[in-house]
Each structure stands twice: as C-alpha cells, then as structure tokens.
Amino acid sequence: MEPVQIEHHFEPKIVAFLCNWCSYAGADNAGISRLKSPANVLPIRVMCSGRVSAEMILRAFRSGADGVMVLGCHIGDCHYINANHRTVKRLPLLQKLLGYTGINPDRLILDWVSSAEAPKFAKVTSNFVTKVRAIGPIAEELGMGLRAPFNARPIEEVTA
Amino acid sequence: MIEQIQSRVEENLQDLDGIVALRLTNQGAAPYLYQSGDDVAQLVMEPRYPVSETVSKLQKRYRDANFGIVARGCDTRALVEMSKRHQIDPNRLYLICVACSSEQADACHCSEPYPILDQWPRSELIGEPVAGAAPHPLVAEYENITREDRWSFWKLQFTKCIKCYGCRDICPVCFCDACALEDPLWVEPGLLVPDFPMYHLIKAMHMTTRCIACRQCETACPAGIPLTVLYDLIRADVADLIGYLPGADVDSKPPLSLTLADAPIKSDLVY
Amino acid sequence: MDYQNILTICPFCGCGCALNLEVIDGEIVGVLPANDHPVGRGSLCIKGWNAHAFVNHQDRLTSPLIRENGGFREASWDEALELVAEKFEGIKSQSGPDAIGVLTSAKCTNEENYLLQKLARAVFGTNNVDHCARL
Lengths: 160, 271, 135
Fold this sequence. Notes:
The complex is a heterotrimer.
Chain A: E1 14-19, H1 23-32, E2 41-46, H2 54-62, E3 67-72, H3 83-101, E4 108-112, H4 118-135, H5 138-142
Parallel strand pairs in A: 1-2, 1-3, 3-4
Helix pairs in contact in A: 1-4
Chain B: H1 2-12, E1 18-25, E2 28-34, E3 43-44, H2 51-61, E4 67-71, H3 73-84, E5 93-98, H4 102-108, E6 123-126, H5 137-140, H6 147-159, H7 166-170, H8 198-207, H9 216-220, H10 227-241
Parallel strand pairs in B: 1-4, 4-5, 5-6
Antiparallel strand pairs in B: 1-2, 1-3
Chain C: E1 3-9, E2 18-24, E3 27-33, H1 46-49, E4 65-68, E5 71-74, H2 77-95, E6 102-104, H3 110-124, E7 129-131
Parallel strand pairs in C: 6-7
Antiparallel strand pairs in C: 1-2, 2-3, 4-5
C-alpha cells in the first residue's frame, strides 16, 4: 500500500477587537443581512477601540491568533469623542515593533467600520483572512508547537 | 575637568539644600547627596548611574527643598521626560550639566552627548560638547536584515532573559506603581524565560515616546540583551510619524494620549 | 536630610553580588546595583533588586510570639527562650536527640551557621543538620 499524502489545509484563527458602538454593530448587521464573512474571525467586543492596548494584542498572538484586527469608529465618530485618536497612534507603532522583532506586521490591522458599513465589515474581514492564510501560521513564527493556551508551556509539535 | 565640576559643586552648595552627584569612597562609586561641608574631592563622574531617579526620590521626600544635580546629556533628557510626567519639579532643580567626551559618547552610541540647556531655566554647562557618536551597528544596518534573521536574533536574545526586571527598575522614565509587566494577565508569573513576545515587546511599547536612550537598561541587564536597539528603532519611527523626540522639549506633551489636533500622526487612516 | 548609598552584599543566594542600599535619613528606600564591583558588575537578579523590600516590611515580626488558645500572644525573649528550651528538652528525652533537625540558611552569616551546627551536635546531640541551599 502506498502511503497517502494528507493535505493539511491551514485556516487562520483571527481575533477581532470590535468597538461596541460601531464595528460590533456593523458586524451584527453583516450577520443580519446574510453577508458572507469568514468564520475564522473570533469577535471580542470592547467598549472602544481606544481600550485595546498593546498587551491585549500581544496576548492574542501569544495565545495562538494568526491575525489580529482592531476595528473602531471613524475619526470624529467615536462615541467617547476622541478615544480612537489614541488607537490610530498606538497601532502603527505596534505594527512597526512587530516588524522589527521579526513577526510579520501584516498580521495586525486597524480599520474603521461604522455600524452602517456591514458590507465593509464583510470585505475587510475576508481580505484579511485571505492575507493571513497566505502568510501562514503564527506558531511557525513564534516558534511554538501546537498552539498552547496562555498559561501553559509550549508543547512539542506532534507530527502526523 | 573633574576639578572644575568639583569646585562648581562646592560653590553652588552655598545656595542649594544639596547636590546629587556620584561619590567615590573605598567602597566604590554611587550617587550621594552632597551638602554644605561635604568633601567634594570625592566627586566623580564614572561609572554612570541614573542620578535623575535619585533626585526625583529626594524631591518627593522633601517637597520644599531646592536641589542641584550634576547631570550628563542623558540625565537632562530623562529629567525633561520626568518633569512632563510630574516626577520632577523643574522649579526646584538647578542643573550642573556636564558634556561627555567622545569616548563616553562612543561607549553609549550616544547621538547627543551633551545637555540642551535652553530647556532648563537654571543651569550651567561644564565642558565642550562633542559631536554625537555613530548609532549602534545593528541599528544602522537594520533595514538589510531579513525578517527571518531578525526573528532568530531576537528569539536568541530574549531567551537569555532571567526576568530580573532590572531594565524596568533602573529606567529613569519608568515609575508606574501599577506596572503592566507585573500584571499576571500579560506576563505570566513564575515562567522563566518570559513567553515571547510578552515581556520585552510590552516594555518596548511602553518605551515609545519615553525612551531617552540613556542605555542604563542595557548596562544593567545581566544577560547583555541589546534592548536599546529595539527602542532606538521605534524612536526613529515616533520622530518620523508623530514628530516627537523624547527629551528634546520640556513643553511638548507626550503625544500618545493627546488628540490628533494636538499631536497628529502620519497615517492613511486619518482623513 | 541625608541620602547615601551603602554598599552591601545581597543576602539571598551564595553568589555574593554587591548592591547599594539607598538610604534616606536612615531609612532604606531602594536598591541600586554596584557598577564597579567584580561579582555583579552592575547587574542584579530579581531578588537583589528587591533586597530592600523585606527590611521594613509590615509583616515582619517585631517581638517573640507564643501560641496560646489557638492564637498568638506577645512574650519577652526570656519567656520565649525558656519555653523553647523546655520543649526541646522534652522532645530529646522522650524521642531521642535524632528526633530534632536543624535547618540553617544562606541568609545567616557563616558564624551563625557555625553556631547552629554546634547547637545541633553538642547541645541536641544529633547530626541532623542541613542548609537551605542544598534543597
């Protein structure tokens, strides 16, 4: 009997921080309108994109997210007036830092999606999943074996 | 030059409650608060200590005292960043600034080995400023290093970390009581080596708009991790994208918590 | 108003890194590394960086305490040491000297460790002596 080659198809795990007032509502509307958006996205609702700190994003990567999206309100539309000003300054610096450390900075994106922009939500998430699928698993970049939960030691990769 | 510094300290002690500088005894050199009557012949400038932290501690303890400090360029930059964050009262501080020599600048890869006096109303300068040294060789060549090489370099470096928190403890601009690096949510307690990328990237993010390139963290690191290579790279980006240079201007507020009107960033997402 | 750094050796492990204790008006407020010392050469481990924390800690005992009725009550040194000697005497006569063990510590000086092993061997009459660094 010939050994059978099994194709392992990589599906990225994406964590999306969605702000309660705009992007989360936009994601909700995308679902209600039956727009196709990828199932790879794990939404985490935060009150504002300004609340998303570098620590949270790094923990998402460490916990096994292949890509992280931060979606907030447009500049000028933030429910808390100007909290998204902080996001727009913080995220590019974190992207640069990831690049300097050797992690692909394209794994992290920031975009604005308002509650009325359900098609934009579907488009942004699909494009991002396609991009991260092409980049590859984070486990290879971070040198982890199977994606270990945060409070466990990385375990050796089990080869099929 | 050391005699000049010593005599200026002695003269200034007439008007000040104390001057923070290094003192060399038979036990070695360490920061000390010189007061009127002390022997200034013991004053030295090497080895480097973060004297800005010492004067901050003393100012918080004695809220009416007028102190002086013998400060290098990096110390004055640290004092600028600390005073913006209310850790230093510049009105009760007299600076005796000392310009570093070329050898000292080369040892620290320092691009600005001299204090900027116009930030401080009460200051004086001893010594001639010299030109800045070349940047760290890694920083200069960083664009040419591939992503895989960057990754394997930092993975090796961060594996050496023993989580002593020395880089955080000795940093002059790190003063938070509730430090993110001690939060078990982000940096898992009891795990040695710290999980990549948690400890070091969190510190690097917190150092954006704060790091003044004093190199104390690198000197204090028992494992010799070249931390300031990362911090130098991100500092160049902060200067480029936001136009903010830590330690340069005592009146410019730290930009990350300001609105875009007060501190804009060059980004496609701002329209 | 007095600030100085006092050079001392870290009390924790046997490496013997030197550190400076920052002292303001006789009170220990912090630690700085000893940059020109040959052992540590300006570096400290996490224990060294926090060597000042236990000195004035609120949880430190300030007087001998004797357990009574499920709680503790303060006692004088004489009373406490009398009780300790009495109890050790009792254990030694009841179960023999080898029922007692002595654990010394890297935080003790060499002289204190010597006295502890002398106490174990000459007074209690046992060879059960060990040191925290061996564990």
